[in-house]
Design brief:
5 helices; Nuclear Transport Factor 2, Chain: A; single chain; about 140 residues; four-stranded antiparallel beta sheet
């Protein structure tokens, strides 16, 4: 009888742990795991990174092609040089992110995202990469 009771207790404990695990996984916010799940979440991640002056995190919001020079006048820049230029550009625009609230105003299937930074309207094109939605740009 003791073996049966022990077996039932173990089965009940395992079932409880599985239920708890399922409940916890359902309550997780997908954006916490991947801030690039949607075009909107990528813009909000960029906004928060800029407010925090975390330029490395801000760069992560951009597509892989964003750090590649496509301007022949700039010549062949290394990826390190492009990254430094990109960070300088982010620093130049950082203050407006600190002073203003970002509000998503439009998202289209082409992943063109319009948003307001305070009262200023902005628009970015986005691409779907392996990690999620990233901002596409040309320097």
């Amino acid at each position: 009888m003791k073996k049966i009771t022990t077996g039932l207790v173990i089965m009940l404990l395992v079932e409880t742990l599985l239920s708890l695990s399922l409940l916890l996984s359902c309550s997780r916010n997908p954006q916490e795991e991947n801030p690039y799940v949607t075009p909107e979440s990528t813009i909000m991640e960029l906004s928060q990174a800029m407010k925090d002056e975390d330029y490395e995190r801000a760069i992560d919001c951009y597509s892989q092609d964003a750090l590649v020079s496509k301007n022949p006048a700039m010549g062949q820049l290394s990826s390190k040089e492009m990254k430094e230029l990109f960070i300088m550009s982010l620093r130049d625009s950082q203050k407006s992110f600190v002073d203003k609230t970002v509000t998503i105003t439009d998202v289209q299937m082409t992943a063109k995202v319009k948003f307001k930074l305070g009262d200023e309207e902005r628009e970015v094109h986005m691409v779907k990469e392996a990690e999620g939605w990233k901002i596409a740009t040309d320097l």
